[in-house]
Design goal:
single chain; 10 helices; 4-stranded antiparallel sheet; 253 residues; alpha/beta
């Protein structure tokens, strides 16, 4: 089977190491996490295609974390010592694509991973997102805007990626905190601070943003329309304006 980027989230260090070794022997790229605190950070930085998730972790509920993973559109194989029908149904409804009861045989585990990775190869998203002037490289976590490489921090990259995934729809501050931050944070001003930092790097005029727009009483959205507009021009006073801004008469959301 072809190589797949896999994250293992398992509290038992011996089982985690054993699973990782077998997956590496099968040619996969493997990242290991011992708890939920590590798991979010590793997921956002590595962007795996498949997550192998223990339902019970030292610092939280794996089933609840699976609900967060479902929003990230990644395949999930849940491992669990819980074997009742209601436990299995809960895991599958939380977003798991498959459910494997502990203890299990290694051959069965690898067969289930192979079945899921076949699905991953068929439906895997592109490693590059192209929005016209904005290009996001998910593998190397790089961003180009108007053919220029933009230096972003890991958190700025994650925030921009989540906004891009929304397809132009506005996201509230709590939604952005949940999807883009590796740790649980309940301070909405954290989002505002990072949006301001992003605007300084990608906007022509950060004080009058065209690309990352504020949606009143909601949050923020990525203006995909402006990304396909012609390149900025010079007006009679020497100030740069995008064609989209001219067409809109400088109206703001």
């Amino acid at each position: 089977m072809g190589a797949v980027n896999i994250q293992i989230i398992e509290g038992n260090p011996h089982l985690r190491s054993l699973l990782g070794w077998h997956l590496q022997q099968a040619g996969h790229q493997v990242h290991q996490s011992a708890d939920l605190h590590q798991a979010r950070e590793v997921f956002l930085s590595r962007q795996p295609n498949l997550v192998i998730l223990d339902s019970e972790l030292p610092d939280g509920d794996g089933v609840e974390f699976c609900r967060w993973l479902r929003q990230q559109q990644v395949l999930v194989l849940m491992l669990s010592a819980r074997a009742t029908e209601s436990d299995i149904v809960e895991g599958l409804r939380a977003g798991a694509d498959d459910y494997l009861k502990k203890p299990f045989g290694m051959q069965e585990f690898l067969a289930r991973v192979e079945a899921l990775t076949r699905r991953s190869r068929v439906a895997a998203p592109s490693a590059h997102l192209d929005y016209g002037d904005l290009k996001i490289d998910l593998v190397h976590r790089r961003v180009r805007f108007k053919d220029e490489l933009i230096e972003l921090t890991p958190q700025e990259f994650s925030l921009l990626y989540v906004l891009a995934q929304a397809g132009g729809n506005p996201l509230s501050r709590p939604e952005l905190l949940q999807r883009a931050w590796p740790d649980a944070i309940d301070n909405p001003r954290t989002v505002d601070t990072h949006i301001l930092s992003l605007r300084k790097k990608v906007e022509i005029d950060p004080r009058q943003p065209d690309l990352i727009q504020t949606v009143r009483n909601v949050g923020y959205r990525l203006n995909l329309e402006v990304l396909n507009a012609p390149t900025p021009t010079q007006n009679g006073n020497g100030h740069r304006k995008t064609a989209a801004r001219m067409a809109l008469g400088d109206r703001r959301v």
